[in-house]
Amino acid sequence: MNCPKCGAEIAEGMAFCPYCGFNLAGTGTQGFQQGQNPQYQQTSNTQQHNPANQQQQSYPGTGTNQQTPAPYGPTYNIYQPPPKESSAGKIIVGIVVAILLIILLLALFLPSTTSYSGVPLPTTGNLNVKYNSVWGNDVDVYLDGEYLGQIPSDEYYTFHGISPGTHTVEIRSTGGSFLADKTVTINAGETTTVELSYGD
After folding, report:
1. Correct CATH for 125-197 of 2.40.10.340, 3.20.20.70, 2.60.40.10, 3.90.1150.10
2. Which pLDDT belongs to residue 44?
3. How far apart (Å, rounded) are the C-alpha atoms in residues 193 and 184?
4. What is the 8-class DSSP label of residue 19?
5. Structural domain boundaries of the chain?
6. Which of 186, 182, 145 minimizes the C-alpha distance to 163?
7. Is the pLDDT of residue 39 over 70?
8. Could you give the CA distance from residue 57 to residue 156 in angstroms, rounded to a whole number?
9. Residue 124 or residue 11, greater confidence
């Protein structure tokens, strides 16, 4: 007899083919006799054990059998990166941050005219002048060549609203003669005192 699977000649009554290991007992026959068609036997046996044939399903109304394809290989979850932020949004954020930084720098370095309590800061200073006279006459006071007013000798007199900075205080007689001068520095919100005598 011959093996239904490989067609090799084997002895009668064997349970397995010694060449291919085919189960002769499971086929219901102990091989086939010489002259039978082994290709037909192998084809029939293959169709009975073909998993693809088991996937065929009959659908009503179609009159045909349709084969459901089996999944091929393992399935994977494809990684999808999160959507990127638009460049326009980044530009807008950058502009806003730059504006805030400029405002902060201006607030730190520019001089302020208002105190933390909300009271306006002084922008001018005061000048307290005294002239020591030999004769005790009134004198005229000039600041940087501009006339401020007339004051009595040997007494302090205060002029208000003087702009901050360095100035020259000059004393002249009421007749216009030069008597003395000095250089002073005026600070905003402060009173600067200067005392002059004849010949200074």
Report:
1. 2.60.40.10
2. 42
3. 9
4. T
5. 1-56, 125-197
6. 186
7. no
8. 121
9. 124
